[in-house]
Amino acid sequence: MQARIVMLVDLDYFFAQCEERRNPSIKDKPVVVCVYSGRTEDSGAVSTANYVARKYGVKSGIPIALAKQKLKDVDAVFLPLDKEFYREISDRIMEILRSHADVFEHVGIDEAYLDVTQRTKADYQEAERLAEIIKDDVLAQEQLTCSIGVGPNKLVAKIASDIQKPDGLTVVRPHEMNVFLSPLPVRSLVGVGRKTEKKLETLGVRTVGQLAKFDVQRLIDIFGRKLGTYFHNASQGIDDEPVQERGEPESVSRISTLKENTRDPAVILDEAYRLCKEVYSRLLNLGLLYRSVSIYVVAGDLSVHSRSKTFENPASDLETFRKTVKELFEKFLAESDVEARRIGVKLANLAKKEKLQQQITSFFGDATD
Ligand code: DCP
Ligand code: CA
Ligand code: CA
Question: Closest Cα to residue 83, out of 34, 140, 21?
């Protein structure tokens, strides 16, 4: 395989950082984002916490009651999860990241792989500069810090992204790979959970370096061919998994919160057109056409309303999209008396451009010969 350069971008203490951005006055305090189960006041688990709270031992997954105990005498902030708000920020950041990648792979709400081999001409210095630019862009446009790992493959990029958090940038060149990986605990490798870690420990293997020296046949005997081979390769930093765009989406949408609840069509359309532009640029990137347009309104009382229109033939232009969105919002405002708190736009029934071309060609015959 040709030499690659891969990045993993992971947003720092993501949900908690979104909360800090919404309310900067809490930044210096421990911030704990909670998933309340609703049974008793404090039942539920910690989703994530900022780094101030982590100093007190508060982290993802622990019970809220335990977090409160750890922060007993501290002026800490406990907040409920607001997934939609984090999703909005995530969507916009993913677009920034996508614009810097040859190939983009969305992994989760706060992380993505970027193959940047072509645009950096496989040069690590270029890649490091690009990573700085990405960090600056995300900070300037969305006021959030992230950590980036750069390496010859996904495995190394992922580990590198995690090593200097928060606001980290770690570049691992191919010749530095073994020195970088050797001292790390085996747990750093994707796929090595607590159980495997225990098992390896009984074999005297604690670090990735020790795993790399361990007889591969014995690994296969113990863990089976697939896993044994994987562990062996991973410990040497070998990973051929390509960065891959994940499937074609069924729809593309954006939603955003208005500055205040309103029924003013001018305010609503102004924001809606902004969202249209974002959705449309995503559509262009995907090289797809659309056949239906929807709008969403989340009202002041959090009730959700929508309107849609589906066309007979796929459309591809921004103007039709904007015109339809305007029509649908005007229709909605005429039919309903709610105030909009959040609004969204969506394109669905997406179709491939080539397919349409094929249809046209088979319908009219191939005019070129
Ligand atoms: N998350 C969650 N429960 C978990 C782990 C994570 O709800 N057990 C959510 C909250 C996190 C988000 O997913 O903000 C991203 O998870 P990460 O593992 O990337 O953790 P963070 O971004 O919070 O922190 P870090 O700075 O370590 O990346
Ligand atoms: Ca993260
Ligand atoms: Ca993550």
Answer: 34
